[in-house]
Amino acid sequence: MPRPALRPRPRQRGAAMLIGVAALGLAMAALMVLDVAHVFSQRRILQKAADAAALAATQFVEPTCATATPTARSVAQQNGLPSSGATTTATCGRWDPQAVAAPTYFSAGAAPFNAVRVRLSRPVPYFFGLLGGSAGRTVTAEATAAITPVTTLSIGSGVAALTDASPLNALLSGLLRSSVNLSLASYQGLASARVRLLDLVRADPIRLGTVDELLASNVTLGNLLLASANALGPSQALAVNVLNSLALQAQTLNVPVAQLLNVSAPTDAAAAEARINVLELLTVGAQVANRNNFIALNTGLNLGPLASLSLGLRIIEPPQIAVGGVGTSAKTAQTRLRLNLSLLNLNLGVASTVIQLPLALEVAPARATVSALQCGRTFAESRVQLAAQTGLASVCLSRTAAGTLNSPETCASNAQPATLANINVLGLVNVGLLGYINLQAINPSATPLSYGSGAAQPVTDGSYRIGTSLGGALAHALRPGSLQLSLDTSGVLGLVAIIVNPLLSTLIPLVEGLLSTTLAAITPLLDGVLALLGLDIGYADVNQIRLQCNQAELVY
């Protein structure tokens, strides 16, 4: 049987050509990818150069921007920009999130300058020229950096002029609910110490990551003081020892940090670099921890056998320390203060009695608001502008003033006189001694304050008084005509009235004289306590103006 003939295997024509074309395509794609990667690599380098150039040029925005472009070009070349074939443009202007539209918030040429926009461009040649037939492409990078000035301020604490430890010891003893007896040197050590917010955030026992986390937290005042001590370190030994001692007395007091610090810095880094006065942190923190609590204050004043004095306060709204730029506000506390003075065993000629004098002082917050900040090349060329306003104050002696500090109508305009005493005259009748004071709110206008270039005051830490003192809160309340005394003789009738009424006519001037003499003795101490709380009527102290100008940051 014949064998079948073998058929030849079919030949695969053109397969090698297809493989070659595919390989060539892949090679060309790889080469194009290399060109694209090279372009993007050069763009990243150019962006880093633009960032560095903008940060450097921002230091030279004032006064004319003349050196901004040369500075930007020099720094860009140090960071990879070729010295030939590249262009550098630096534009000075103003970065202001409050006044300029998003997303850049930058207005070119707007004065006063606080920012620089740097634009870099350079040609980047292709290695292989396979992208559209061109030899390369031009890449650009842009960066905007701004100096974000930040100031730290408070108003009305009175710590800048601290000359006596007694009022502050009395205040802190009441706020911390334990005895505080520090020396003047200890308080001055606290007043001279400043803690950086970033160090406070990172210090034990707080140990948080950012300023925002600190502001969102509730910490005990004791832990806040311990963290302040750890943040200061051994170079501030006096302040550290005092803080560690006070921290043991403040572990039960809770402080919502957002109520203590009003931080509205333009950037997180600027906020982190802000520094807070340690004594301000202590006194304001103690007030925040005692918001809405009644606080009995031990004045330490010995009035002898003729009089006794009690003093208490209620913090309706706590004060705040401010950290930030334009628009940031610091404020004092909204507070009610109760003074109860008892004049004992007074011999009024026709009678002996005890007189109770319940005075109430109600104060709305004083405020200081940053209206403008301008950083120059030096502090002498820098400028701070504030608008400060003293608080609204009411002083009253009335039936409601003798009641509870919780009453919303403590100094109501329609309040009735208080009964100060029941006087037994000649053993015949009891006569009521009525007293009334109602000085309604003193409505101050805002006072502009300017410091720095062109101003009388330099930009330095300090305390600046606004308004005009009215001679002390109590002296103002008891000025001639303010205290209205009267006698309730409704129960005195007939022949007794004929005998008693002429005698009673001598009582009022006698009582007025006794009250004025006694209150004159206690006014300095009380005014010291009021000053520490920011409750001086008619004026306020704007404290701790601290301008930080070295915060150049990338903002776009």
From TrEMBL:
Chain ranges passing through the membrane: none
DUF2134 domain location: 59-145
Species of provenance: Aquariibacter albus
Domain Putative Flp pilus-assembly TadG-like N-terminal: 15-57
Name of the molecule in the record: DUF2134 domain-containing protein
